[in-house]
Design a protein that fits this description.
By secondary structure, the protein is an alpha/beta fold. It is built from 11 helices and 10 strands. It binds pyridoxal-5'-phosphate. The site of pyridoxal-5'-phosphate has 21 residues, from helix 1, helix 2, strand 7 and helix 7. Keywords: Pyridoxal phosphate.
């Protein structure tokens, strides 16, 4: 493909109680050290489109710990695009060096435009986009979180023929792009379960816009209070999971999803003798930033 990629294999995970369920995790986090997991899948066809149309600059949006910002900065650097990140929160402007994600993006050549939370909320308006055009001239726009039709096309490549044996496909949900791709390439015999990493009822509608099938559901009990909110129980789970399986999980998405999958196995949610595939969508770059926050609060960190 467009740059050198690693392999995404299915790895078996030991489940605590013997409930008959078999659980595997698809290591999409191993695709690339910096453009990892679903962010690579979502960028692939967008980057090809930007190249084909002759764009020299990519512009996108994100928060201070955004996996998407890190992925766009790195991919842009590898492929020779200039990158611009419109970042939520103008208080971050003189704190770049304290923030792992923004420092990484900067090292990869990303130029930032910090905006207030109010302006950030308005980022898809015509007026705001017109201002960006004036400031930065011509750019290929990638939406926040990277979700658009081309992103979903990329996520339709996550499952392979060999994955047809699974009864359930589980993944973390942010904007819903990744699960939409998974639903589109799932088999009718499979159930696709999304674990939203944030509160909100809009996701079901957002996903419905991109999919025609109905073999999916959202499990909304594992957001831990909202986006990037975590607690001691989640940190303990992530650390235990790594000890047992030698697989790191991130605190914002995959940790919450896997916590939910384990809890549902314990509660006999899945049909007897189910084969479950959980997607490791990556996001490991976010651990350092989260640990800085935990350390400041004197809480235990992700090992
Ligand atoms: C961005 C991200 C998600 C959410 O993907 P969506 O397509 O926005 O639903 C899930 N997991 C990880 C690790 C991510 O970085």
């Amino acid at each position: 493909m467009i740059f050198k990629l690693g392999h995404s294999i299915n790895q078996q995970v030991s489940v605590p109680d013997n409930k008959g369920a078999e659980l595997f995790i698809k290591r999409e986090d191993e695709i690339h050290p910096f453009v990892s997991g679903n962010k690579y899948r979502k960028l692939k066809y967008n980057l090809l489109e930007a190249k084909k149309k002759g764009f020299k600059t990519l512009l996108t949006f994100g928060g201070a710990f955004s996996n998407h910002i890190a992925a766009v900065a790195s991919a842009g650097n590898l492929l020779g695009f200039k990158t611009i990140g419109v970042i939520r929160g103008n208080e971050l402007e003189d704190k770049i060096s304290d923030n792992e994600t923004l420092s990484f993006a900067k090292q990869n050549g990303m130029q930032f435009k910090f905006v207030s939370r109010a302006d950030y909320r308005d980022k898809t308006s015509k007026a705001f986009l017109a201002k960006l055009k004036e400031e930065f001239n011509d750019f290929y726009l990638i939406p926040e979180g990277g979700t658009n039709i081309l992103a979903i096309k990329g996520c339709e490549e996550i499952l392979t023929e060999a994955d047809n044996v699974f009864d359930y496909i589980c993944c973390a949900v942010g904007t819903g792009g990744t699960i939409s791709g998974l639903i589109n390439c799932s088999k009718p015999s499979q159930q696709v379960l999304g674990f939203p990493a944030l509160k909100g009822d809009f996701l079901r509608q957002d996903i419905s816009k991109f999919v025609a099938k109905t073999n999916w559901d959202l499990i909304t009990d594992y957001h831990f209070g909202g986006y990037a909110k975590i607690n001691e129980e989640l940190v303990t789970f992530i650390n235990q999971f790594k000890k047992t399986n030698a697989i790191p999980l991130d605190p914002v998405y995959t940790g919450k999803m896997m916590f939910g999958v384990f809890d549902l196995i314990n509660k006999d949610y899945f049909k007897k003798d189910s084969k479950i595939l959980a997607i490791h969508t990556g996001g490991l770059q976010g651990i350092k930033g989260m640990n800085s926050v935990l350390k400041n609060k004197n809480l235990s960190i992700i090992e």
